[in-house]
Amino acid sequence: MEYQYIGAYNEQNERHGHGQATFPNGDVYEGKYKNGRRHGLGVYKFAKGASYDGEWKEGKKHGRGVFHYPDSSVYDGQWVDDMRQGVGKYTYANGDTYEGEWCHHLRHGQGTYIYKQAGLMYVGGWVKGRRDGTGKIVKIGGEPIEPPPQVHPPEPEQKGSMCQNDPPVQPPPPPPYQPPPPPPVDTKKEQIQRAKSHCCTIL
Q1: Which are the contacts of 120, defined by CB distance < 8 A and separation ≥ 6?
Q2: Per the CB 3.0–4.6 Å rule, which of 68, 84, 191, 195 could disulfide with 102?
Q3: Which DSSP letter does residue 202 get?
Q4: Could you tell me how far CA 45 lies from the centroid of its own chain?
Q5: Degrees (nearest 5) of the Cα angle 127, 128, 133?
Q6: 181: which residues sit within 8 A by CB, 6+ positions away?
Q7: What distance in Å separates the CA atoms of residue 63 and residue 56, rounded to the nearest whole number?
Q8: Which residue has the higher pLDDT, 128 or 156?
Q9: Would you list the DSSP string of 140-200?
Q10: What is the C-alpha to C-alpha distance for residues 90 and 98, in angstroms, rounded to an integer?
Q11: What tens digit of pLDDT does each residue of 36-48 get?
Q12: Number of Cβ within a 10 Å radius of residue 192
């Protein structure tokens, strides 16, 4: 399968506006382009079942978006340069959830992790994906537990497959050479007028 694009172009022959791209591996993107790159709202569907529906900037996931991962986990939140960053909610394949701050794909800042099967949740700070000790574990509903129970480590997140890049657009071929038109042929009337003018010049 070859790369295929159906959609709008700008005057520089770049993908620009709404379009749909199908990649050789079976991935499909449909949405907005700007100057050849995915930019604005768009949906990227991976051939293996994952998908991203949200905002793009200069070819990268950037802004608000929802990513459905291959293991059935889901992230709904903010993105910066293709990474989970800002505030978002991650629902894990086992039913656990984390809602809070993210940095470089990792839980980082303030957030709440719910252990669904245990009926518990951790509320507090996170550093590079791990609880930093400044929070507390409580029962779902808010009742504190002393001493804090042992719970399994938070589930790891998926990073998802790499989106395919659109190939560079080849500039349009130059127009075929057109020879200049032959000089106009004088009519008999024009020849007579030119002869009279020439005679007047000599006199």
Answers
A1: 114, 137, 138, 139, 140, 145, 149, 151
A2: 84
A3: H
A4: 11
A5: 30
A6: none
A7: 7
A8: 128
A9: TTS-B-SSPPP-PPPPPPP--PPPPPPPPPPPPPPPPP-PPPPPPPPPHHHHHHHHHHHHH
A10: 5
A11: 999 999 999 999 8
A12: 11
Identify any residues that bridge with 103 across adjacent strands, giving them in sequence order: 106
- DSSP letter string, 103-154: ETTEEEEEEEEEETTTTEEEEEEEETTEE-SSSEEEETTS-B-SSPPP-PPP
CA neighbor of 155 nearest in space, from 72, 79, 86, 85: 72
Neighbouring-strand partners of residue 91: 74, 97
For residue 158, pLDDT over 60 is answered with yes
Residue 203 has pLDDT above 90, yes or no: no
* Cβ atoms of residues 45 and 31 within 8 Å: no
Query: CA 27, 28, 34: angle at the middle one, nearest 5?
Result: 125
* CA distance readout (Å), 188 to 42, 175, 183: 68, 37, 16
Quote the pLDDT of residue 196.
62
| Type of residue found at 1 | M
pLDDT given for residue 198 in this prediction? 54
Residue written as token pair 């629902």:
91
Q: Which residues contact 48 (CB under 8 A, 6 or more apart)?
A: 70, 161
82, two tokens: 């293709």
| Tokens, residue 51 | 């998908």
What is this structure's pTM? 0.77
Q: What rounded mean pLDDT belongs to the chain? A: 85
